[in-house]
Design goal:
Number of helices of chain C: 12
Helix content of chain C: over 70%
Largest sheet of chain C: none
Radius of gyration of chain B: 19 Å
Helix content of chain B: over 70%
Number of strands of chain B: 0
Oligomer: heterotrimer
Number of domains of chain C: 1
Largest sheet of chain B: none
Largest interface: B-C, 33 and 34 residues
Radius of gyration of chain C: 19 Å
Chains: A alpha/beta (about 325), B mainly alpha (about 260), C mainly alpha (about 260)
Amino acid sequence: MVGQTQKQAPIQVENLSKTYQVAEREGGFTSALRGFFKRTYKDVRAVQEVNFQIGQGEVVGFIGPNGAGKTTTLKMLSGLLHPSGGKVQVLGFTPWDRRPEYLRAMTLVMGQRNRLSWDIPAADSFLLNQAIYRISDADYRQTLKELDELLGLAPITRKPVRNLSLGERMKCELAAALLHRPRVLFLDEPTIGLDISAQARIRSFLQEYNRRTGATILLTSHYMADVTALCERIIIIHHGRLKYDGGLSELSRQIAPFKIIGVDLATYAHADLRAYGTEVPNPSGDGKCLVQVPAEQVAAITARILAEMPVLDLTVEDPPIEDVIERAFQEKVD
Amino acid sequence: MLKIFQRLWQVNWAEQWQYRANLIMYLLYGLVSPVVYLSVWRAVANSQNTVKGLTAADFAAYYLTLVIVDKLTQEITIHIFAYKVQDGTLSDDLLRPTHPLLTNGLMYNIAFKVLTLIALAPIWVVLFLAFRPDFSHVTAANLSLATLAVLGGFAINFLLGAIITCIAFWTTRVYSISEFIYAFALLLGGTFVPLDLLPVAVQNVARFLPFQLFIYFPIQLILGRLTPDQIRMDFILQAVWFGLALLAFGWIWRAGLKRYSAVGA
Amino acid sequence: MKHVFKLIAAYLKVNLQQAAAYRADTTFSIVMNLFWLVWELISLQVIFSNTSSLSGWGLGELIALLGVWRLANMFMYSIVWPNTERFNTSIRDGSFDYNLLQPVNSQLLVSISRVVVWRVWEIVLAAILIGVGVSMSRSIATFSNLVSFLVLALSGMAVLYSLWIVLIAFTFWFVKFDNNVTILDALMSAGRFPATVYPPWLRIIVTFVIPIAIATTVPLQGLRGDLAWWQVLVFLGIGVAALFISSRIWRAGIRKYSSASS
């Protein structure tokens, strides 16, 4: 993430806020009757004064627990939703003006929702998109060829979309979303519900696409694997507020400044490693004992273990990223 | 057994109460045609005093009675069952020890009927005031006979509807087929026009078809326009058609189930 | 503008392919359609076997009206119903957002994404009915009458279209009210007969509330030469105004959907 001047950054978000009004309703007949005459509303602050900028070609992960405000933010960035306050500039446009020039330069892919028509082959939906986005025949053929190469589309585009597996459908949805070579991609849970190999395929596709086209990508996901594979920078949002904006490893250093030492011992008896640090359960079942120690003491403690215990094998690892993020949700990160 | 029907009634009533807005819409939908036809025939009757002996007020009486009789004898089984055959959820119903159409289907129809009639009542009063029908020949005796006729008519219509619904076991075009048969009922049952106004040859055929047994027959019975011979004849026809329909339904239901379980849910 | 035509052509092509894929269904639907035409003609025959004139309208004129009505009906079944279904589904499952993301007017997309293409043959059928009806009624189909008729028919369709757009736009404010278009379809059957046949209160409903009559009776009156040229212009104006008002309401609906503060 190199210095981008304010003018150049394709995505600029300033003090963005979104507050919904939700009608309050308790259960019961009298409450329903009362509600008929006078509605009481509650404010839900979905997004509160979020600030960030994303530079050209960056791939940024946007993570947070359910209801944190990720999807709401993406919707505002793609122009689907008007904010309650703040400013957004994407590629120099205000998204909710929904200018055709803006819509032709960006794309939003929502994991659970289908853009493609259910009953017709994906290839026909692609042709529709060509007409909608006014793509020339030459550009269309070229782009489709590249997407086919990267995604392996050829065998599946002639089948009606309803006959495709979830993974195949996602590939086609992505292809349809990228036919017009958008410069900015918003992806909302693109790998949700897919099996491991399909997820990996999508991930490597996005990496390659970013490399080839220099498109700016902002993606939300529940899967850490997506984030760690694709994003050098992450933005954490929780209760509508921005909690952290920076690199993954820095996050680790800041809020989980320790390492996990994994020790494979020569004895069968359970060894007591509490003298070295906090014992941590090992979910992987590989027999290693895990000890959590402060990062700056790793070298010293490792030396002590090697000297004092019958060690067959020893590893030093970062704490699992899920735990780090989990902590980030709970704490305030500066 | 009675307990089952009681429970089914409660469940169906509660379900349909939720969709009462849709019900009002559906009701209005069903009222447009009779009002349109009535207006047409009144216009004809007003321009030449009577049409085959019927005055504008007589037509009004016919169509206003039609609106009620139609709601009393109508059935909507196809809308609640055909889709279940197609998407396999019929299997859930088949697991229960009761016949899906003859119990739940029946109760659904009746709950719908009651709700529709309740919603219809105020509208009917308005129509009454707007069209000024001539109900002078209605007698208590005929009304009580008509209750029987309506019951018999509903029984026949319900079975016919069930038979058509069973066609869903063989084709997805069951709705079109149902529409097709409905078109015949419209013409030959007396919904579009009282049978007296049809060409004589057509009347003679329509007399023996089941359609008029749940539309024209009860209406004319209420309005006091049938002779005792005609009344007797129509009741006999009701009994005959009920028997036929029952047999046909039993047969097609069994055949359909066989196919359903062979093809797989 | 060229792009709009290209877009419409693309959607028509897709829908045509779909119809071709379901050949048997399409054939069956055409047969059923013809069957209903026979039924409608029979019902007209029954009426006119009992009278020679229906409030001043002859059998030929009613046959021509049937043709006009079938045009409006075609519009309902080929465009309104399929697109209403798609719209309601897309609001429910959230895919309507994709409609807004495309660099094309959202109202246009909602109006053409589904078209039941085979129904276009009803134009031919309607033309035949109108031709037969006019020749039967022995009214002179002058050139100016024909022009009036076309203008009024298009204008009437514009009014129906606008009403439809307003009805589905209601979903933006009242999400649960997805039975909205049924009222339009319910009153369609009132368009089969001239509005002058109906009692005054019904005449008002079908002319001003759900103006089916503007798409059926009025064009027929134009064909018969009943209307002065300025009256034709008034109806044309109504059609244009309807299009304008409905597109404004649609836009307001979109603003509500994306919770714009205004």
